[in-house]
């Protein structure tokens, strides 16, 4: 999955917006102003930072050497996924969806309801 395919997948999710808040080389995807994915465009070995619940993160890191712990943002857990042959398109879209779902589940109930109505 290349950068453009990743971008298209992320923005296909409900209420997702795309930003360049840190610099001109990092795509940031948000749902209702909450980040769920960061994709650096200038990294020769593409890395994607995604939110992941801690138990799932441990399981993933045990299964895939290309999934590594990443920095913490607002004390929420993130994982970094390094795109490699080891990461299939299906797994990558599952991880993006998981990150998106975590963010959505943390939104106020009213915003969650608005997403269901879209």
Task: Outline the fold blueprint.
Blueprint: H1 3-12, E1 16-19, E2 26-31, E3 34-40, E4 47-51, H2 54-63, E5 67-69, E6 78-82, H3 89-105, H4 109-117
Antiparallel strand pairs: 1-2, 2-3, 3-4, 4-6, 5-6
**How would you sum up the global shape?**
globular
How many domains comprise the coordinates?
1
Q: List unreliable stretches of 5+ residues.
A: none
User: Averaging pLDDT over every residue, what do you get?
Assistant: 83
Strand content: 25-35%
What would CATH call the class? Answer: Alpha Beta
Run of helices and strands: HEEEEHEEHH
Could you say which structural class the secondary elements and strand pairing correspond to? alpha+beta
Secondary-structure arrangement, i.e. CATH architecture: Alpha-Beta Complex
Strand order, sheet with most strands: 1-2-3-4-6-5
**In CATH terms, what is the fold-level topology?**
Aspartate Aminotransferase, domain 1
Quickly count the helices: 4
In helices, the fraction of residues equals: 25-40%
* DSSP strand tally: 6
Q: Name the quaternary structure.
A: single chain
- The end-to-end span amounts to 27 Å
* Radius of gyration using CA atoms only: 14 Å
Q: Outline the biggest β-sheet.
A: 6 strands, antiparallel
Notes on the protein architecture:
The chain is α+β, with helices and mostly antiparallel strands and 118 residues long. The protein has a single domain, classed as Aspartate Aminotransferase, domain 1 (Alpha-Beta Complex), CATH 3.90.1150.30. The chain is built from 4 helices and 6 strands; from the N terminus they run αββββαββαα. A 6-stranded antiparallel beta sheet has the order 1-2-3-4-6-5, with helices on one face. The longest helix has 17 residues, at 89-105. The radius of gyration is 14 Å and the shape is globular.
């Amino acid at each position: 999955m290349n950068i453009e395919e990743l971008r298209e997948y992320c923005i296909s999710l409900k209420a997702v917006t795309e930003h360049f808040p840190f610099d001109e080389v990092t795509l940031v995807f948000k749902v209702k102003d909450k980040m769920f994915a960061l994709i650096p465009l200038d990294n020769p070995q593409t890395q994607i930072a995604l939110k992941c619940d801690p138990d799932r993160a441990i399981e993933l890191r045990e299964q895939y050497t290309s999934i590594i712990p990443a920095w913490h943002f607002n004390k929420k857990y993130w994982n970094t996924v390094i795109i490699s042959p080891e990461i299939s398109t299906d797994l990558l879209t599952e991880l993006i969806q998981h990150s998106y779902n975590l963010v959505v589940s943390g939104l106020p109930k009213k915003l969650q309801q608005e997403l269901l109505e879209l």
